[in-house]
Amino acid sequence: MDEVPNGAIMLSGGRMTNGVIRVDDSVHRPITDSSEFVATLLKIFEERKFFGAPRYLGQADGMDILSFIPGDVPARFQVWEDGQVAAAGALLRAMHDATRGSKLAGRSPVVCHHDAGPNNAVFVRGLPTAWIDFDTAAPGSPLEDLGYAAWTWCIASKCTVPVERQAKQVKILADAYGLQGPERGVMVDAILERQARNARFWAELMASPDTAPTEPEVLASRIEWSRREFAFTAAHRSAFEEALA
Ligand SMILES: Nc1ncnc2c1ncn2[C@@H]1O[C@H](COP(=O)(O)OP(=O)(O)O)[C@@H](O)[C@H]1O
Ligand SMILES: [Mg+2]
């Protein structure tokens, strides 16, 4: 972490937002189009006693101010233990439940995080205990977040973990979430959908170079990665479905 002149600490490690800094026990993030939605969401979490997210503390000097959550935010995707995956599933469920039926969720069942990967989770004593980075949060279906979480917590085409083991962890995630019935039957479709959507997301950013958060080569590699993961999941669909059955 780099020191910045006013004594604040630059928080690097994120992939989207430049200028996130820590000042004492708070995090300052540049105001964006999603600031208002996120402020309302974080207030709902507080009202409904969901403690797995930062508190919203207001705005100053063009920045949103949030509480700093002590712990570790992993910089890279990696292989997680079963207990860590289960904790992520339970944390995702608790977050969704806290938004169910709220005005913010609108006609959707819940408010989704839409980027609930390990890189946006704060780990305490090895377990994910809070989500951060709600910039992409929006009304949605639980399967959107579950599909993305299953991918980013349990699946990797390039890793050495056998696909059966990856599939078992997808089951652990779904079980910890409490996913049942017809939605469980389309969990693999939800994973594939999120992988395809991810490729499209980075391609759309690449199409607008002036506002893209990083260089075209980096964006191209993320598109390539998303498509590779989609192909891997599709090729092993039956292994994932058997584990979930
Ligand atoms: N409320 C918070 N509590 C603790 N750490 C935080 C908090 N918000 C951000 N961070 C740290 O700052 C980094 C970047 O913030 P993040 O909101 O994830 O931005 P990005 O959009 O770039 O991913 C995170 O990876 C994390 O290490
Ligand atoms: Mg982030």
TrEMBL record:
Gene3D superfamilies per the UniProt record, alphabetical: 3.90.1200.10
Superkingdom per UniProt: Bacteria
One protein family per Pfam: APH
Domain Aminoglycoside phosphotransferase stretches: 107-182
Membrane-crossing residue ranges in chain numbering: none
Name the UniProt record assigns to this protein: Phosphotransferase
